[in-house]
Amino acid sequence: MTRLIGVELHQLVRSRRTWVTILLIDLLPTIVAVLLAVTDIGPRPGSGPAFLSAVLTDGTLFPLAAMAIVLPLFLPIAVAIQAGDAIAGEAQQGTLRYLLVRPVGRTRLLLAKLVSVMAFVLLTLAIVAATAYVVGVLLLGNGDIGQTTTVSGTALSQQQLIGRTFLALGYALLCMLGVAAIALFLSTVVDSPLGAAMGTMAVLVASTLLLTLDAADSIAAYLPTRYWLAFVDLFRDPILWRDVLRGVLLQVVYVVVFLGAAWANFMTKDVTD
Amino acid sequence: MTAITTQGLTKRYGAITAVDGIDLDVREGDVYGFLGANGSGKTTTVRMLLGLVLATSGTAEVLGRPMPKAGAEVLPQVGALVEAPAAYPRLSGRANLRVHDALGKGRRSGRAGRVDDVLDRVGLGGVDERPVAAYSLGMRQRLGLAHALLHQPRLLVLDEPTNGLDPQGIREIRGLLLELNAAGTTIFLSSHLLAEVEQIATRVGVLDRGRLVVEEQLDVLRQPTGRTYVSTPDVARARALLDGQVESYDESSLLVRVPDVAALNARLVQGGVRVSVLAPEQHTLEDVVLEATTASSDRFERA
Q: pTM for this one?
């Protein structure tokens, strides 16, 4: 199993697509930081991406703002493409059958692909956060050291900030695991990696769209994207756990259901391509 | 010891029966030619043997163990080329083989040696680091064979292994397969090329529309027909001499049914017939296959 994961990770970091995708994702928050620094016009508090109004006074908060920028759209698209490619891509290339007769067990292959996708998410978030920190401090300055303010306006110690940032990172990873599970399932169903990625994006777009519709209120709590941005609540004082916990529960259900479906489908699938 | 046995192996896709209750019997040490027209079910059978496609009914045993259940024990001893070869296009051939060596049971030490060894065997020993995307069809086919040979399999399952190779390449691969077979590797060779199978197989199975219609040792199938082919410029004189024994003739040859070819020769020479060729006629694999199978399965006649 570790060998298989090793091979998958090796393929991941060797692939040009990985780095181009990360670069493109990384570009968006950087552009935002440059614009903010040049114009000094922040969104009014309460509107626009989370934390953005706060970063004008404190650049060290910019990694969190960057996360809030890439999480709703850019990162899920990248995850849908990566995970959608996992099985369907190997099948389209013809390499799936040769992996399976090597033999690589089907369950193991599925797990290794999932690990690789999550490694990609972690790598992307790490790079986005690191870039955002550097860009934030350089362009927007670092307010009072050790005196970060929460969204609620109270002060946050450096230690608290680090702890909560890791919590937020874990939460974002779980949300992306939910996306990966859906894409991985579709990847075992359709023959084209593009189809699997587009299908996943369709689910996410539909979910986002329904969330804006009052008539969909009754199902809103079950839509996959409903609690994605709840990690902002981790930076309130005190932490507002309600949405975060609901979000965790919802994502766990999505992950279990779709990974289960992916596994069941892949185990009984005729590999004919 | 049998290498492959199946009992009533069947695969249905909806209303279509791709493989219809076949009972294969491949013995260890065989070069087994698995013949059939395109679409007769060869590839589906191969995929079922390798656990890629799950049978609708029936059982398959490979190297004495049930497939696909015992795949984890069986497959490391099997090398396979299933339809077209496939590799990661951005990696070089060597890098592709390294990936597969790592996924198999190969330890890191000796990996380069094993990879170089199989590359040498298939004639790609001197290949550079260009990505597989830049390989020719023949090079890809050779690389596919190298994949199959990694980890010294006891059984080679090859589907159309000479696809895309030029005549020298085909001959080279034939030599390689015979060499491997002599060293004890069982070879299951699926092909629609009769001539290719006829040159190398010891045993053949013929598939027709999903059914196994022939399974026999090749030399039994190619037994003499009891007729003798005579080529001569004196056809008329020969016919007069052999009245009643000539089954057919044209302007330069005859087919004669006689029990003793030597006596026939003496008689023709004594009768003043000039003989340029005298040969006992044998069944060809083509005769056997055409007799056993129905119309080509990629033909669709108007009803």
A: 0.87
